Amino acid sequence: MQFITLSRRVSERFSDADFAPHLEAEAQRARALYLEGFIRNIWHRGDMGGACLLVEAENETAVWEKLATLPLVNSGMLEVTSVVPLKPYGGFGPRV
After folding, report:
1. With CB atoms 3.0 to 4.6 Å apart as the test, which of 33, 44, 87, 93 could cross-link to 38 if both were Cys?
2. Which domain covers residue 8, as residue numbers?
């Protein structure tokens, strides 16, 4: 099952300088989750610091567990604000 997740940097508590030492570990963990087939796509948010991920997991609990392994999430520097399950769009299929 696929999910869209939204996260935001907790910038009211952490500065860019606070984030900097953790970014390489975050990128390495994201690459590992991509290679595992969990992350399918990832974007930086255009409205604020954070990310939008398209992920694949058995259920929402598994999504939260995998996201918690990201160093910025684990340290409380990145807050996951939404995990939304996706359903297939039927509009492109045959009309009945």
Report:
1. 33
2. 2-85
